[in-house]
Amino acid sequence: MSRRYRLSWLMILLPILAAVAVPLLLKRPSRTPTVVVYCAHDSVFADGILRQFEQQTGIRVDVRYDEEANKSLGLTQMLLAEKNGPRCDVFWNNQTLGTIRLQRAGVLQPLPLEPLQRIPQKFRDPDNMWCGFAARLRVWIVNTERMTCTPENISDALSLSDLSNAAIAVPLYGTTLTQYAEMCREQGLQKLTTWHESLHQRGIREVRGNGAVRDLVAAGVCSFGLTDTDDFFAALDAGKPVEMLPFRLQDESTICIPNTVAMIRNCPHPDTAEKLIHFLLSEATERQLAESPSRQIPLGTTSTSSLPPEVQRLLPWAAAATDPAAAADADSLVLSWLSKTR
């Protein structure tokens, strides 16, 4: 066979071989281990944690965040919709009740037992379907140039006929929904409805999220409002004249809202999911979140004396908290009522 003849055949065969080989190579699964995370925690705090996990383990993290106004609820609905074909491995929620909603719908599977052991039973599911870590508190934020931050002053201000100087987030989402569920559990839906209607009849400002409440109070547009500790610290760090007090239920208990981690049933990457769960529930991660600008409260065993002073101040308030799962039965009742009022 002549050299020219062989070259002619190669010219014919090479495009054919390329046409067959390239699609096969593209279809080969990536050798980089991956974990898919749906995350309702603020990306400004969560992303650093997840990228640190990537660096330490070599596991790529594909993360989906949600917007402030629809936070946690939107991701919860997405996970419910994907129940029969899950794409997510780990759900990092910024509260408890939505995670319990997923548990009751059969979306979750048991967590690995080892990392749960350092978290008190109060903050984790008895069947190990979810676990809490790094909590916030529900608080009153007060502009100290407009009023003195005392329980008596807040109580007096709430009794006024004009509440246009106060703000609250839309209660259909996030931690305001958690607060409403806790109030419903304690007082019943009728008393909660009366309280809610009274606030609105007297002109309280209802805004898209806790961050908007913070900004109105920090700017002095409102004298006080309801938000979470992480939003309060954001205003304080910005040099705003703000102070806070815990929101207390009628029995004087506080509302402590943990982040929660859960593993999705039949998730596509269970091995890497377990590694991420170990990482999130570690003392190192809780301490990192405590030392971040959000000053989240560690729930697991840790050296409290070495925590930032602002976090140490929160510890007695967190110790007075109600069981974060206790309002789970009231959650759907409140959500149904609020959905009808929109």
Task: Describe how the helices and strands are arranged.
Layout: H1 3-27, E1 34-39, H2 43-57, E2 60-65, H3 73-81, E3 90-93, H4 97-104, E4 108-109, E5 131-143, H5 151-158, E6 166-169, H6 174-187, H7 189-201, E7 205-207, H8 210-218, E8 224-228, H9 229-237, E9 242-246, E10 256-264, H10 270-280, H11 283-290, H12 309-319, H13 328-341
Parallel strand pairs: 1-2, 1-3, 6-7, 6-8
Antiparallel strand pairs: 3-10, 4-10, 5-8, 5-9, 5-10
Helix pairs in contact: 3-4, 6-7, 6-13, 8-9
> What's the shape?
globular
Rounded radius of gyration (Å) = 25 Å
Number of separate strands: 10
The CATH class of the largest domain is Alpha Beta
Poorly predicted runs of 5 or more residues = 17-22, 24-28
Order of helices and strands: HEHEHEHEEHEHHEHEHEEHHHH
> What's the tally of helices?
13
Instruction: Tell me the domain tally.
Output: 2
| CATH homologous superfamily title of the largest domain | Periplasmic binding protein-like II
Q: What proportion of the residues is helical, as a percent range?
A: 40-55%
Q: The biggest beta sheet, please?
A: 10 strands, mixed
Q: Which structural category fits the helices and strands?
A: alpha/beta
> Beta-strand level of the residues, as a percent range?
15-25%
Terminal CA distance: 82 Å
